[in-house]
Write a structure and sequence with these properties.
78 residues
Length: 78
């Protein structure tokens, strides 16, 4: 289990300053973990793959909406 999810128990802090510094440290740890996770997600190939597939789907939909006709109707003399 990740340390960031472990519940922290504060049993005895003699002063408000100790309590405040404890929570400031906890907040800075959480911020650090969050930034690491954001960096990991930015480096992930998943975002790039999703964008590539989105572009492919858009091209496919455009092609289906506006098909290129291979056969042109023959001119008939009336």
């Amino acid at each position: 289990m990740n340390n960031q999810y472990i519940r922290r128990e504060v049993f005895c802090c003699g002063t408000c300053h100790e309590l405040k510094s404890f929570w400031e440290k906890e907040i800075s740890k959480q911020t650090f973990y969050r930034e690491l996770e954001e960096d990991r997600q930015e480096r992930s190939a998943l975002k790039k793959l999703r964008e590539e597939w989105r572009q492919r789907l858009e091209r496919r939909l455009r092609m289906l909406d506006n098909p290129v006709e291979k056969e042109k109707p023959a001119h008939t003399a009336d």
